[in-house]
Here is the input.
Amino acid sequence: MSGTHSDALISRQVRRLETLLEERGIVAGAALDEALDAFLSGSSPLNGARVVARAWTDPEFKRRLLSDGTAAVAELGYAAGGVQPQRLRVVENTAHTHNVIVCTLCSCYPVRLLGPSPSWYKSEAYRSRVVREPRAVLAEFGLTLPSGTEITVWDSSAETRYMVLPRRPPGTEHLTEADLIPLITRNALIGTGAV
Ligand code: FE
Here is the structure.
């Protein structure tokens, strides 16, 4: 059986299971859509890490990534999934600014690049508090930022998803793109962790 056929078969079986679970009220459609999307599209934080490692080692790619995230990640084969077209905006951390992402309304998240979202991302506590007191929330994640660092919180929507471009750590100048990938964590791509 070819890969395409077996993928189609798995998709059909998963969708049938999805219908049954929804009919019986076991799971909400939106949550299941996200998990299903992640499962079917090979979503992983490794994808986001690859994008960041490329940006750290290729200034022209970085420039394109920051000006049009959607098009730049498509160059690496990461097309935005989902039924609705989604725009990806990549926000860069600098010496003086730190970015963190949230969806205050629900749980929008760049699943393809970051893998399935962690439960805390979807929690009421994170969604409400990170906007009001980002510095305190980040400290709880073990990320203590200098008082002079400006924190920007990006609120996702159905149309726009965000990913953070973390700073390349000092002392990694000798590392190759491939060597850099394992340093980049999912939380660093959300903005709740350091590299
Ligand atoms: Fe949302």
Summary: The pocket of fe (iii) ion is lined by residues 103, 105-108, 156 (CB under 6 Å).
